[in-house]
């Protein structure tokens, strides 16, 4: 059975995490990262060093659906969440009060774990273009979280695969890139003005399910045990189901990804 193993340097120092998006899923993912970092410290690890990007401001529609309170309205999402954690937990994490674009791509050269929690496939595609333009750490990983109204997926792959036997797992862009391009053709960026409107578009709880599943089923076992056999999962609230995505070249072919190493890896 194939598995994804933890990079050796992750066990020797703080893991540099870049979180892009502090909205529905991202704000909840940031809370999970805080808990995960604290647990790592108590178990003898070094914890996490997080940099969070978001250029949006808290609105009334975000209260109760995301980890914001009424008093946060009008303030930048990344700044609110990071400042709160730094004050409460004594961390020294960084908030970038801007949307991530090519002008920020230098941070990718220092990133161990990139987490994307963004709504639009065009943003994911733009991020993948930034990754291609930079010489990233060959051991760095990319955790992508995406969802629709009642369903979503979480996938952990390499940040930028180099097609070697020790680094064969496709990145989110390599596995789902063709789907992103197709979705971009009909993409519409519409922000909800009220909680009622937002909930009518997206069921309550899907964002939290994605964030908790990513941390409890992928990141924590990877950090605690050193490896995982499934590096993705699909959640559907309407059917109350969670289905794993195994590390398997045959599974990758379903999404149109062909690895030159697939024959020897699956042998």
The helical percent reads 25-40%
**Radius of gyration based on Cα positions:** 18 Å
Unreliable stretches (pLDDT < 50, length at least 5) are 262-267
The largest sheet is: 8 strands, mixed
Tags for this model:
36% helix, Rossmann fold, 8 helices, 8-stranded mixed beta sheet, two-stranded antiparallel sheet, alpha/beta, 19% strand, 10 strands, globular, 267 residues
Structure, described:
The chain has one domain (4-266): Rossmann fold (3-Layer(aba) Sandwich). Helix content is 36%, strand content 19%. It contains 8 helices and 10 strands. The protein has helices at 24-42, 77-89, 121-132, 172-184, 195-201, 206-225, 249-254, 262-266; strands at 4-5, 15-20, 48-53, 94-96, 113-116, 141-147, 151-158, 227-228, 230-236, 241-246. The chain has an 8-stranded mixed β-sheet, with helices on one face. It is globular, with a radius of gyration of 18 Å. The protein starts with a strand and ends with a helix.
Secondary-structure blueprint of this entry?
Blueprint: E1 4-5, E2 15-20, H1 24-42, E3 48-53, H2 77-89, E4 94-96, E5 113-116, H3 121-132, E6 141-147, E7 151-158, H4 172-184, H5 195-201, H6 206-225, E8 227-228, E9 230-236, E10 241-246, H7 249-254, H8 262-266
Helix pairs in contact: 1-6, 3-4
């Amino acid at each position: 059975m194939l598995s994804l193993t933890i990079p050796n340097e992750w066990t020797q120092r703080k893991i540099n995490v870049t979180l892009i998006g502090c909205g529905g899923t991202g704000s909840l993912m940031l809370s999970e990262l805080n808990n995960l970092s604290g647990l790592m410290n108590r178990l003898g690890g070094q914890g996490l060093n997080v940099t969070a990007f978001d250029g949006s401001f808290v609105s009334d529609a975000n209260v109760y659906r995301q980890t914001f309170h009424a008093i946060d309205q009008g303030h930048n999402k990344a700044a609110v969440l990071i400042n709160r954690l730094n004050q409460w937990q004594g961390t020294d994490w960084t908030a970038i009060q801007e949307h991530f674009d090519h002008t920020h791509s230098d941070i990718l050269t220092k990133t161990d774990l990139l987490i994307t929690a963004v709504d639009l496939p065009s943003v994911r595609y733009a991020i993948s273009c930034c990754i291609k333009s930079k010489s990233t750490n060959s051991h760095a990983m990319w955790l992508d979280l995406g969802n629709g109204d009642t369903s979503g997926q979480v996938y952990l792959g390499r940040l930028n695969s180099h097609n070697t036997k020790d680094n064969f797992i496709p990145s989110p862009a390599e596995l789902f890139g063709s789907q992103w391009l197709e979705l971009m053709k009909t993409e519409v960026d519409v922000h909800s003005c009220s909680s009622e409107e937002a909930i009518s578009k997206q069921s309550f709880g899907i964002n939290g399910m994605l964030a908790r599943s990513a941390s409890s089923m992928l990141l924590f076992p990877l950090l605690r045990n050193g490896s995982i056999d499934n590096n993705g999962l699909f959640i559907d609230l309407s059917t109350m189901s969670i289905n794993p995505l195994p590390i398997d070249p045959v599974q990758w072919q379903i999404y149109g990804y062909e690895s030159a190493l697939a024959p020897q890896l699956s042998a």
